[in-house]
Write a structure and sequence with these properties.
- The protein is 64% helix and 5% strand.
- The protein has 20 helices and 4 strands.
- The longest helix has 27 residues.
- The N terminus is likely disordered.
Length: 433
């Protein structure tokens, strides 16, 4: 499957490995995401333990628990790049906390390189990782920084060499450099509606967000690492101009760390059992203060899907939609999925009709500068090929009205509606059995 090019190949290589091990995309993405959340939790715990201090062990436990509880976006099962960025950045910070040495630098650099291979959004976070040990090394930081940057850039150098060997170096530059520059330069500040959405989605940081500011009153070594991580995450989100829950996942580990440290600061006002009760209440508040009775991180999703065999809100949606599309196709492989997860192509063994498998973005005008052309023209080309089955989900924000009109008129003229599942309309080309 040809992937959306503005992401480095590392994410897709990881997903391919997951498919090889687990067999189907649903289980592979669930397992990979669950593993990523667990790795992040262990990394956060290791960072705070390595940072030391009398409260390090308690803070590490609370933070690890917070990361697992709060990694809930998109049912926590779809393997979003942000989950993997968190895991690798956590490993990079944990490695960098080891006494400054070339071995620690090597491990930290490899983990940072892997994070950047998940998505170019990770660049500010990789820079944050490089800053911390460089400061610790002091005057000899220059060789370290050069070596760190070289290791981080090795995968891109290999990719460029492969493109060059195929005589397609301009395509590599457009995919990895120019598309990213176009995307960043075309970004706009969030509208008031998106700002409101952002504030609502900050609930994913609960309960740590209430206590995080307290950690800054007496910043420990662990707090410095968390603050540095937080700064990189904020820079990544602002740089990408993407202010919704999937991207706010980048904030979860550092805020959970700061929140745990802050909660422990507040707990100092209590003694004995009262202190324990206060910390327990902090964790319970995740559910009662922030409506997270529907927490659906990867582990719970796996139980619902593969043990109980029951759909859960936010978990069963994709499964039900996939089954309905599969029933409409009857073994036919001619499919176009609009505003539906691109995993559907792999799950149904259907070749995507466009190289841009994140096809929802073809109607999202803010994405067009990154594409380098009008998404409406690509949509028109796809519709002209007359895919036998078209699945259309609810339109997102900033969609092109002309593209919607073109899609709807084509569907009304050439297709018949055969099913509607969880807001996804499934059409079949007229004249087919």
């Amino acid at each position: 499957m040809i992937a959306w090019e503005y992401k480095p190949p590392g994410l897709f290589a990881l997903c391919a490995a997951g498919l090889l091990v687990f067999g189907n995309a649903d289980l592979a993405s669930s397992m990979l995401a669950t593993i990523a959340v667990i790795v992040t939790a262990f990394a956060v715990s290791a960072i705070l333990n390595a940072a030391g201090g009398p409260q390090a062990r308690s803070a590490a436990t609370l933070s690890a628990l917070g990361v697992v509880l709060l990694s809930t976006e998109n049912a926590g099962t779809k393997g979003d790049a942000e989950l993997f960025i968190n895991a690798f950045i956590g490993l990079a910070f944990a490695s960098a906390l080891v006494k400054p040495a070339w071995r620690a630098m090597l491990l930290s650099s490899i983990a940072a390189a892997a994070a950047l291979q998940m998505k170019l959004t990770a660049l500010p976070l990789v820079a944050a990782v490089a800053v911390m040990p460089a400061l610790a090394i002091g005057r000899s930081a220059a060789p370290y920084c050069i070596a760190f940057a070289a290791i981080v850039l090795v995968p891109f150098a290999l990719e460029a060499a492969l493109y060059a060997r195929a005589g397609a170096l301009p395509a590599f530059l457009d995919a990895n450099v120019f598309a990213t520059v176009r995307r960043a330069s075309a970004g706009v500040a969030p509208s008031s509606a998106r700002a409101v959405q952002w504030m609502e989605e900050l609930r994913i940081l609960a309960p740590a967000i209430e206590f995080a500011p307290v950690a800054f009153f007496r910043l420990s070594r662990g707090g410095v690492v968390a603050a540095l991580w937080l700064a990189g995450a904020v820079a990544a989100i602002v740089g990408a101009h993407e202010y919704y829950a999937r991207h706010l996942e980048l904030l979860v580990p550092p805020v959970a760390m700061l929140g745990s440290l802050g909660a422990l600061r507040c707990a100092d006002a209590f003694r004995g059992r009262a202190r324990t009760a206060f910390l327990a209440a902090t964790v319970i508040a995740t559910f009662f203060l922030h409506d997270y009775f529907e927490v659906t991180q990867g582990a719970r999703a796996l139980v619902y899907r593969y043990v109980l065999r029951a759909p859960d809100w936010g978990i069963g949606d994709y499964t039900l939609v996939r089954s309905a599309i599969e029933n409409a196709m009857h073994g036919d492989r001619s499919l176009y999925a609009m505003q539906v997860s691109p995993e559907i192509y792999a799950d149904l063994d259907a070749p995507p009709p466009t190289r841009y498998i994140f096809s929802a973005n073809l109607l999202e005008k803010p994405m067009w500068p990154m594409l380098g052309f009008s998404g409406r023209s690509e949509l028109a080309r796809i519709l002209a090929t007359k895919p036998h089955v078209i699945a259309v989900g609810p339109p997102g924000d900033g969609v092109d009205a002309g593209g919607i009109e073109l899609l709807e008129s084509t569907l009304a003229h050439d297709y018949r509606l055969v099913a509607t599942v969880r807001g996804v309309r499934i059409y079949k080309l007229r004249g087919l059995a």
